[in-house]
């Protein structure tokens, strides 16, 4: 495993984090909104 | 090799649509509740469900399906030694590696990211939670999967899944280990489970596992639906809604020349619906002639499983040290968009109808058992409703003794014991909302029903009672000066290494039961921890200052001054407390 591979892996993990985080924040703040707006 | 501009534009467009799809169930939930009145915001313990998520049922089912496939020689004699080792390693190792990772993520990471948020959304009715988890888990996996096909530098992490020249149950788990470990949807579903949607997650992941296993298996369970005319309408719905062996086998084809294969699309896992919506799907009722990738070089199992940690020694392989990012015989078009078949996107017009069908399906599960005109509210909503009244009608449904110690400003007292005089109600308007509270909502429930029967139009109950009101810092009346100050409290939890705090009141039945548990621990005379019991009514200001008491009884375990375990209600046993104490030691 060389530096190029580590950079590739970090890029892959970042992509994974984004597609994990975006829906999580939508659901978290969305449901919080539902709970407190009514 | 760079991603094609056309493909990047399409990915961006579909990602924006996905944001809307993610938000859709939450928006619908909002309109559902606002249209029909608020549901009870209940607390529940997600821990038991988390334990069940890692059940053994699915691996056993996979082994059984695998044995059937093997017995009927469905692997077409292509399962050589290298493939066998790879399939078995991919089946076993991730199950050993991922479980501790998820456990760490849920028990250590999430409490830091979302402190005190465990189970906060357990009030979401099952049907809605099912819909949320189904979209969260499967749409996220769709994107994870699609990007590994359409972004050239991601392809090699997913290549192992497509390299086999056969189909079978083993394909469902045949992945490069880094692809599996960083599966976004696993962590998303674990996070939503932590937040309280665990029961629905259990169902969704179970159903999803069955569908994906069936879609990869070489047992063509969908064939009868295509063969018999009477089943054609069912087939029409099935092949658009979920991944079938036909549509998913097409994704694993090594060519599109046979008119069946679509390795450039059909990315859906549980739902094929995403492919329908984004125009990446081609529906077929036939099976491809051959599977795998044209430029497969039978790379060593360890290179396929562990690339880029270990590389292949096969010259010209994508997995070799100086190999191409995408194989020569599979140029960029093979891992780019599906643009030349864009006209197939017309099936997207069915998307709205299919989504509507999903919502109807989910809403049949929705908890609609609501007593008309009676609403149980969490403290913030309860306070907000009161604040909108010019002259709020508030009733304290506790005993006069409790009422004298503390109550909401402006409340009158109705004691339900004995004859329970209702004379205070005389000045209340039946047209205006009435607000009820006690310690929990069992006593308010009784009065609420009575008020509705007597013509009061709207009755609101405070879900977690007076403790949640005081704990949230809303104003209240009291004649009591707290026995403990915040400084006293801080001192005791910091000067003792392990402290178990039980906050309750003798007027509450559940608190009494928890007190019995805690008292039985006292009898152990274990010097390694300290037990503190706080009476809510004698320490209202402390409860307000702590800002972490949402109901009584509440038990909090502190280690070195920091809370490490907290439970509300009677959602634990003596054994649970002892286990947590042992862990803290």
Report on this model:
The complex is a heterodimer of chains A (38) and B (585). Chain A has one helix at residues 3-37. Chain A has one domain. With 38 residues, chain A is mostly helical. The radius of gyration of chain A is 16 Å and the shape is rod-shaped. Chain A is built from one helix and no strands. Chain B folds into three domains: 5-363, no CATH class; 374-478, 3-Layer(aba) Sandwich (Oxidized Rhodanese, domain 1), CATH 3.40.250; 486-584, 3-Layer(aba) Sandwich (Glutaredoxin), CATH 3.40.30. Chain B contains 22 helices and eleven strands. Residues 39-54, 328-349 and 362-370 of chain B have low confidence and may be disordered. The chains are: A mainly alpha (38), B alpha/beta (585).
Task: Label this structure with key terms.
heterodimer, A: 38 residues, mainly alpha, 92% helix, 0% strand, rod-shaped, B: 585 residues, alpha/beta, Oxidized Rhodanese, domain 1, Glutaredoxin, 3 domains, five-stranded parallel beta sheet, four-stranded mixed beta sheet, 22 helices, 11 strands, 48% helix, elongated
Describe the sheet with the most strands of chain B. Answer: 5 strands, parallel
> What best-fitting shape of chain A do the alpha-carbon axes yield?
rod-shaped
Overall pLDDT confidence of chain A? 89
Low-confidence stretches of chain B: 39-54, 328-349, 362-370
Rg of Cα set of chain A: 16 Å
Categorize the overall geometry of chain B.
Answer: elongated
Task: Supply the helix-strand structural class of chain A.
Answer: mainly alpha
Question: In what range is the share of β-strand residues of chain B?
Answer: 5-15%
Report the oligomer: heterodimer
Major β-sheet annotation of chain A: none
- Could you give the distance between the termini of chain A? 54 Å
Tell me the number of structural domains of chain B.
Answer: 3
**Estimated helix fraction of chain B:** 40-55%
In DSSP terms (H or I, runs of 4 or more residues), the helix count of chain B works out at 22
Strand order of the largest sheet of chain B: 1-6-5-2-4
Number of strands of chain A: 0
């Amino acid at each position: 495993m060389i530096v190029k591979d580590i950079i590739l892996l970090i890029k892959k993990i970042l992509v994974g984090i984004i597609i994990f985080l975006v829906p999580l924040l939508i659901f978290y703040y969305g449901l919080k909104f539902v709970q407190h707006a009514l | 090799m760079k991603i094609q501009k056309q493909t990047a534009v399409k990915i961006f467009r579909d990602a924006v649509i996905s944001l809307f799809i993610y938000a859709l169930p939450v928006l619908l939930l909002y309109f559902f509740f606002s249209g029909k009145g608020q549901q009870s915001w209940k607390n529940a313990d997600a821990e038991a469900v988390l334990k069940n998520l890692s059940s053994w049922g699915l691996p056993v089912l996979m082994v059984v399906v695998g044995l059937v496939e093997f017995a009927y020689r469905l692997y077409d004699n292509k399962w050589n030694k290298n493939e066998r080792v790879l399939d078995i390693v991919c089946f076993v190792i991730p199950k050993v590696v991922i479980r501790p990772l998820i456990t760490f993520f849920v028990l250590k990471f999430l409490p830091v990211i979302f402190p005190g948020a465990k189970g906060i959304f357990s009030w979401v009715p099952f049907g809605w939670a099912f819909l949320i988890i189904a979209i969260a888990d499967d749409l996220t996996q769709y994107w994870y999967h699609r990007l590994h096909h359409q972004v050239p530098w991601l392809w090699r992490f997913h290549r192992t899944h497509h390299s086999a020249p056969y189909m079978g149950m083993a394909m469902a788990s045949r992945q490069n280990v880094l692809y599996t470990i960083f599966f976004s949807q696993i962590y998303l579903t674990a996070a939503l489970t932590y937040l309280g949607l665990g029961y629905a997650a259990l169902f969704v992941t179970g159903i999803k596992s069955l569908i994906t296993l069936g879609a990869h298996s070489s047992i063509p369970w969908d064939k009868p639906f295509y063969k018999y005319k009477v089943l054609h309408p069912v087939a029409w719905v099935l092949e658009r809604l979920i991944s079938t062996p036909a549509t998913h086998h097409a994704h694993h084809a090594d060519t599109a020349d046979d008119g069946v294969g679509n390795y450039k699309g059909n990315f859906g896992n549980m739902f094929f619906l995403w492919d329908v919506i984004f125009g990446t799907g081609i529906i077929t009722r036939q099976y491809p002639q051959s599977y795998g990738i044209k430029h497969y070089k039978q790379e060593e199992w360890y290179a396929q499983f562990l690339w880029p940690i270990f590389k292949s020694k096969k010259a010209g392989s994508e997995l070799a040290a100086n190999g191409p990012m995408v194989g020569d015989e599979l140029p960029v078009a093979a891992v780019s968009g599906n643009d030349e078949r864009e006209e197939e996107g017309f099936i997207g017009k069915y998307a709205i109808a299919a989504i509507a069908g999903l919502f109807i399906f989910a809403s049949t599960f929705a908890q609609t058992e609501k007593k008309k005109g009676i609403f149980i509210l969490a403290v913030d909503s309860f306070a907000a409703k009161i604040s909108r009244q010019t002259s709020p009608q508030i009733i304290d449904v506790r005993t006069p003794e409790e009422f004298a110690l503390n109550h909401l400003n402006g409340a009158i007292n109705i004691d339900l014991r004995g004859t329970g005089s209702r004379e205070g109600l005389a000045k209340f308007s039946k047209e205006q909302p009435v607000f009820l509270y006690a310690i929990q909502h069992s006593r308010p429930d009784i009065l609420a029903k009575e008020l509705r029967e007597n013509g009061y139009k709207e009755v609101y109950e405070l879900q977690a009672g007076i403790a949640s009101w005081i704990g949230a810092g809303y104003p209240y009346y009291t004649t009591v000066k707290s026995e403990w100050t915040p400084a006293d409290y801080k001192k005791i939890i910091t000067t003792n290494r392990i402290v178990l705090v039980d906050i309750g009141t003798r007027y509450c039945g559940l608190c009494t039961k928890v007190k019995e548990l805690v008292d039985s621990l006292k009898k152990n005379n274990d010097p390694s921890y300290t037990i503190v019991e706080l009476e809510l009514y004698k320490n209202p200001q402390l409860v307000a200052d702590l800002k972490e008491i949402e109901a009584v009884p509440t038990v909090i375990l502190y280690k070195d001054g920091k809370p490490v375990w907290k439970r509300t209600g009677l959602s634990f046993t003596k054994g649970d407390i002892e286990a947590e104490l042992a862990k803290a030691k």
